[in-house]
Amino acid sequence: MNPIFTQLPTTIFTVISGLAREHGAVNLGQGFPDDPGPEDVRLRAAEALVSGYNQYPPMTGLPELRAAVAEHYRRFQNLDLEPAEVLVTSGATEALAASLLALISPGDEVVLFQPMYDAYLPMVRLAGGIPRFVDLAPPDWRITEAALAPAFSPKTRLVVFNNPLNPAARMFDAQEVALLADYCRRFDAIAVCDEVWEHVVFDGLTHRPLIAEPGMRERTVKIGSAGKIFSMTGWKVGFACAAPALIEVIAKAHQFLTFTTPPNLQTAVAYGLGKDEAYFTGMRADYQRSRDRLAAGLTAEGFKVLRAEGAYFLCIDLPASGIDMDDATFCLRAVKEAGVGAIPVSAFYAERPVTTVARLCFAKVDATLDAGIERLAKARRMFA
């Protein structure tokens, strides 16, 4: 059996969610919203399922969705994309897999920022890539020249860049994005940009896509997620956007992974991407209100809450909250003894270092957030 997979541990998400069910805990660990998603988009999918076409759609995606993606990014990010430069995939993770399998050759070095989404490293290794890590540190999680320099070399082929960053909830600023673009140009590297949280940003911040930086148009793959945009994580509709030389080879990998994506969901996403800006601003405002509710409640209970700029997560600093415990131990004890699920940020590092930051999901109804605050306060009293 393939050691890349046999040596992988059970994911911390599975562990914490299983323990949360077993102990009747409030689960702020799993990253999905309580809200069912916009009704009009769901109805469009239902109508297309009942009365639409249900055989194989085009491998690269329905023309109406590819055009809608290009128009959406023109409208919101001022990008000049052609529909032919858009590939529809069965979720953003499949877009990542197709991109990495298509663009990495055995022995290529791949730069990864950690903490990182846990799918990146197995996929890089499956493609034969050699990971080179850039460690980002709390509380600011900043990209610096000193951090980038040791990770890049003449063998660097590709960079995987997640912005906003899960789990740190960090939105990288213009200076950091420009610095990374400079390194990509200098080392002739391709950037695969996981931008699934691009609409889930707060405090008036604006997402800055790496593909818009000078010299990056021909060397960037931009990946988005309808599941994140519309708060329906189970839909698994993603899209990869890139210049023809890149998207054509990514499509060849995609055709042997999932080949295509349910046509009724594609029809609904094409409709949804054309929604008025009020939907997107309203969605952000709702999540920001939930973020602020959780942050205020935890702060009142003595927790040190790190700034959350994007995605629907916020992190707590355990030592600064008076808890002398590593994050993995805290999260396992909290779910078992205090009845609340959280995710240790150490799980998002390759070497599993000892870290002291825990991630919480605030995409929940008020009652769940309030119960989570109460039980986290209980954990703090127990463990501090």
UniProtKB/TrEMBL annotation:
Q: What name does the UniProt record give this protein? A: Aspartate/methionine/tyrosine aminotransferase
State the InterPro entries in the record.
Answer: Aminotransferase_I/II_large, Kynurenine-oxoglutarate_AT, PyrdxlP-dep_Trfase, PyrdxlP-dep_Trfase_major, PyrdxlP-dep_Trfase_small
Per UniProt, which keywords does this protein have? Aminotransferase, Pyridoxal phosphate, Transferase
Task: Identify the species of origin.
Answer: Caulobacter ginsengisoli
Q: Which cofactor does it need?
A: pyridoxal 5'-phosphate
Molecular function terms in GO for this entry? transaminase activity
Domain Aminotransferase class I/classII large positions: 26-375
> Species lineage, top-down?
Bacteria, Pseudomonadati, Pseudomonadota, Alphaproteobacteria, Caulobacterales
Give the matching PANTHER family.
Answer: FI04487P
Signal peptide positions (record): none
The source's superkingdom equals: Bacteria
